[in-house]
Amino acid sequence: MHRFSHAGRRAAHLTMFTCLLSCVTAIAPRPVAAQGAITSNAFNPALSLILDGKYTNYSRDPRDYQISGVLLGEEAGLPSRGLSLGETELAASANVDDKFYGQVTLSISDNDEKTDLNVEEAFVQTTTLPQGLTARAGKFLSDIGYQNSKHSHTWDFADQPLVYRALLGEQFGDTGVQLKWVAPTALFVELGGEAFRGSEFPASGAGHDGVGAYTAFAHLGGDVGDTHSWRAGVSYLDTDAVNRESTLPSDDIVAFTGQSRVWIADAIWKWADHGNPKTRNFVLQGEYLRRKESGNLATRLATAAYDGTQSGFYVQGVYQFMPRWRAGVRYDRLSADNTVGPLPIATPLSDDRDPSRVTAMVDFSNSEFSRLRLQLADDRSRARSDRQLILQYVFSLGAHGAHQF
Amino acid sequence: MQKIYFLMLLGIVFNVPANAALRIFSCEPEWAALAKEIGNDKVDVTSATTPDQDVHYIQARPSLIAQMRRADLVVCTGADLEVGWLPVLLRQGGNAKVQPGQDGFFDASSAVQLLEVPTSVDRSMGDVHPYGNPHLQLDPHNIAKVAAALAARMEKLDAADASLFQQRSTDFLLRWNQAIDKWTQDGAGLKGMQIVTHHRSYVYLDHWLGLEEIGSLEPKPGIEPTTGHLAQLLDQVKNKHVKAIVRSSYQDSRASDWLSSRTGIKAIVLPHTAGSVPEAKDLFAMFDVIIARLNEANK
Asked: What is the span of the domain harbouring residue B104?
């Protein structure tokens, strides 16, 4: 992700300020035009702001965080201890004209040292291609897997599954193009492929003249009666990394150059009481990811050959037992088989143990627009267990959110 | 043999229709029932929702995306009722014919005058709809207006069956208007009847029959009933002559039952769409049941 230079950061602050001002004006209580009246802002995009804040407590120092068997991307890790602001998200979307739709999601993260403004998504997509085709261009979260394309405010837990954190750097998104096709069948069949710049983890360095990552995915889905629905899929990600840096807890930097390929199998099954998820519903979700990397690792003083296979899965169940209240549990497990040549520093790649994590959460949503969550986890990513507590709020202001499956 | 497989594949890829029926994706069962009245066997109608579901809270399920992909005509209430999921289905379905602005997209709310259009909106008011109250199907006059507009749209999309659609819609409207006269007559005694409702989804019924809504079980639209609010409502209804606590089939019965047990006021389920109670199998029966149950409670 971009790190702003000092001047750039000041500019970003300024833009953010003006933006926030105008956005707040746009979503404050406002008069609705009487039927037939046309106002100058009638064509404004749908704007929404996501407010996310946390209190976290860990039994171990989050700055030492690493996962045995993998080198983490710079985005991956734990939120800082104590009170912190998560990602404040500003999203705008609208139809561009009769043939295109556009969407922008900016995320603002603020921590002790700096404020970062990131373009999480900024893409346009077609609405009128024939034969069930949809094309997209810009920056966006890839449609591989199930959890990957979900924005953080829609997650069922306060953090990503361990396998996503370890193998995809929390989640994979980049600048690129996408083509999707939905089959004209009663069974939901969606096939798609993407080509990306290749600058985001697990790719890096925008190899091959800036077209350095490719994906392909297939999703199937449907209903069983009025109360059950499901989706399952397989996905593949093929990337090249050029000097992909990982900072170890010792502050040493290891850079990977080589090929990284990820396979994903995902499945989700949902049940709703009388088909009406508002009262009671249950969601069972699981994904398996496997990544193969081969190339070499460079430290300041040496370079060594590296071949690694890392895999893992998570399975989670979330039950809404009465309106507004949900409870869920999640189990994560990873394993790795790495061959690394001699390096002068120790890396987590040579840790010969299988990380795992057990998470439990309960959340309360006063309305569709507010959610308060308590999450407890026993995280065995490192040699000793880390007990984690997260209290979180996620509020959304402005336009109505999308009810994604 | 290989040739047959190839042709089958071509059929799948290029969506060769199995029959020529107009394929209609309806957001709600009432519009599915109406489209069936007009199109009979010349339409293939699916409803995205069932009467047991709260239409506000539908997810863009894979099965709905698949239905959207194959539709020739999308018929929805509009007025932001389906704002959480219909735009997602339209974006993911990859179907150019049914995008808003095309002939394949029909918005029922555009055919009627909406009530309760707020002068200002803010989320502190709950899940309010800035374009007005979207539960417009509970005034039979609105059904008639939507029927005429929908029939015209279906005639435009399927020229081969246009005369049939015209004939059937004329016949439907004739029978419907006679039925409205009967319901209005049978419901004449309901004018001024005081009711409490679960959600603000009966304003068109109130408007038509002259019912007086004293309060809602929901403290704010879309916010589930709370004990504090129900206690307040209990005080509020004590000095009134409330005859019925009204809810729809998809709404939780506990709040209604609680208030009913403390006040002796009858809690009743009114059909809000075709098929929502066993007796209300079509649109005619739906209003028959509404009038009968209100009259029963008003005795």
From this structure: 2-182
